[in-house]
Design goal:
By secondary structure, this protein is an alpha+beta fold. It is built from 5 helices and 10 strands; from the N terminus they run E-H-E-E-E-E-H-E-H-E-E-E-E-H-H. About 25% of the residues lie in helices and about 35% in strands. A hairpin with a 2-residue loop joins strand 4 and strand 5. Helix 1 runs antiparallel to helix 2 and helix 2 packs antiparallel against helix 4. It starts with 17 loop residues before the first strand and ends with a helix.
Length: about 260
């Protein structure tokens, strides 16, 4: 069943609560990403205007299985490379996955999507993935305004359908923390998992933070098609934005849109 939400507004929020965005595509395992291939990948991305000057090797642990002694930890083996820019963007590449992530998201088309396109282009320059096994886009929002000292005080900002336990007359006043996971079918191709809730934030003297963690993905085997991956990524973005706008009230969205 297709999710019945209106097309989202693309208006930028002056006080966006977006804390992190992660995009990833997984594909059939190929040859290890050597230092030479990682350097070629970095150079290809740089040609498109994005400089990832710091490179760290990603290690994976092997597991040794002895039929008499059971499983034990083995040795660390190279799994890929984590490339980081001076302004905090990260691209990770391995023999079976490519990801782009940031805690400094600004715009979709000229910012995040452009970096995804550059990374996809560079991947096809150094490797030939035969099949896509999973594609995902995740947005993590941490809402910290206004000052909230009990879960029920989010009413009027977080939509009531998410806040239901906190608004219940008997349970609500006793509630100290709330966390929930929702799984949604978006269409025949993709799904969403939403993890949300509110907690007393130790980094903010115990006042409440609200988490909205939206993961849009498809996880079936498909031919690796860059054009299709780009189109699906755009659809995932629209779905995530529509869900975010459904999870907060229109009044709160207007409040977040105003500069201080």
């Amino acid at each position: 069943m297709t999710l019945g939400l209106p097309l989202p507004s693309e208006e930028m929020l002056a006080r966006s609560p977006l804390a992190q965005v992660v995009w990833q595509v997984r594909f059939d395992a190929g040859e290890p990403i050597t230092a030479k291939l990682a350097a070629e990948f970095t150079a290809c991305v740089k040609e498109r205007g994005f400089d990832y000057s710091k490179a760290d090797r990603i290690q994976a642990m092997t597991v040794n299985v002895n039929p008499f002694l059971g499983a034990s930890e083995g040795s660390a083996v190279p799994a890929g490379w984590r490339l980081q820019s001076e302004d905090g963007w990260v691209v990770a590449i391995s023999h079976d996955a490519l990801s782009v992530e940031t805690t400094r998201y600004q715009t979709w088309t000229a910012d995040f999507r452009a970096r995804v396109d550059a990374a996809l282009h560079a991947l096809t320059e150094i490797a030939v993935p035969g099949a896509e096994s999973r594609l995902g886009l995740r947005f993590i929002d941490l809402i910290t305004t206004p000052i909230v000292r009990s879960p029920g005080e989010w009413r009027g900002r977080i939509s009531d359908w998410l806040l239901a336990p906190a608004l219940q007359d008997n349970v609500g006043p006793a509630l100290t923390m709330m966390q929930q996971q929702l799984s949604l079918d978006l269409d025949d191709d993709s799904r969403a998992v939403i993890r949300h809730g509110t907690f007393q934030d130790g980094s903010r003297d115990g006042v409440y933070t609200y988490l909205l963690d939206t993961d849009i993905f498809r996880d079936r085997l498909l031919a690796f098609d860059v054009t299709d991956i780009q189109a699906a990524t755009d659809r995932f973005h629209r779905s995530a934005l529509a869900l975010f706008q459904a999870m907060i009230t229109p009044e709160f969205r207007a409040e977040l849109g105003r500069s201080i």
